[in-house]
Amino acid sequence: MTSDEQTGAAQTGGEQTGAGHEGCGCGCGAPGREAFLPLGSRPADAAAAPARGRHDVEQAQVPAGRFTMGDSSGDRNPGDGEAPLHEVALDAFEIDATTVTNADFARFVDDTGYRTEAETFGFSAVFHLAVAADPGDIMGQADGTPWWFGVRGADWAHPGGPRSVVDGLDDHPATHVSWNDAIAYCAWAGRRLPTEAEWEYAARGGVEDAKYPWGDAEVDDGGWRANIWQGSFPRTNTLDDGWLTTAPVRTFEPNGYGLWQPVGNVWEWCQDWFDPGYYAHSPAANPAGPDRGAQRILRGGSYLCHISYCNRYRNSARSSNTPDSSMGNAGFRTVALAPGL
Predict the structure, then answer these.
(1) Is the pLDDT of residue 22 over 50?
(2) What phi, psi does 81 have (nearest 5°)?
(3) Looking at residue 47, what DSSP letter applies?
(4) How far is CA 215 from CA 70, 88, 191, 303, in A?
(5) 281 CB-near residues (< 8 Å, 6+ apart)
(6) Chain CA centroid to CA 337, Å
(7) Shortest CA distance to 57 belongs to which of 315, 331, 256, 340?
(8) Rounded to an integer, what distance in angstroms lies between the CA atom of residue 300 and that of residue 314?
(9) How far apart are CA 68 and CA 124, in angstroms?
(10) Whole-model pTM?
(11) pLDDT tens, position by position, 50-105
């Protein structure tokens, strides 16, 4: 690790995705919305989206089977709950081959008039090097993660702030989408979010006990395999993989089940509530997560992850945030409903 990387690691103190996510610090994940907005300042809820619309994302078929869930590499992060290792059996399911893109999300918005929580709150979290806003639109930095700014006017259509647009980014993942927004999209599309177990099983692509979707080789071994950070976080990205922020959803190579970029690029919302102790007592078949909680699961890491301080772009890595939080490095993919639903 270089001296700059050590400085970045010291600044992050690990990885903290959401304010209030105790025990794990995740510098590449945004703080919860409450880090910028006082509790109790929530605006009126956005209108629910009508079902059903047109979901055009290519599907990957994941067969029924068993797998060992959790970290077997020894790289787990304290407090994340990647252990104990446990065998899980899952029914077959159909999952999006890519995350939902800006073009997909725009079709949903055009069809429903839906306003995301970033729009109803009036701001979202933007990484400091991606900010495209006037100084008066920057609300400030989050405690402990000063590289995250609350930016007024940042939303899925303006990912850096009011001075940015998604023109030309149709094939990039939709970001600044909260868990609640993702659920609204699912209602419109007649879909659902994957459970955490489904997400991990699909991300592994049939490669048992591997650290990454392609195996155990590191991301840059023989050519880049995922969109993560290169250089000295959080100041300098050398762009060795070609991207400062999001990459098109079909960049790099799909895994064995046909999923593109399940790790890196953007964090992906899952259905489950977060509980770091859940693995110790989760069901052996089709686990659906805890019955209740304060934060929802995020999986896969993002373009801000780096092995020197944040190795949460592994198959088993876990993080979380509050359901109403949105950020410039989180999106989602969906799963088909069981027949008859």
Answers:
(1) no
(2) 80, 35
(3) P
(4) 15, 20, 30, 20
(5) none
(6) 21
(7) 331
(8) 7
(9) 36
(10) 0.89
(11) 557 889 999 999 999 999 999 988 888 888 999 999 999 999 999 999 999 999 99
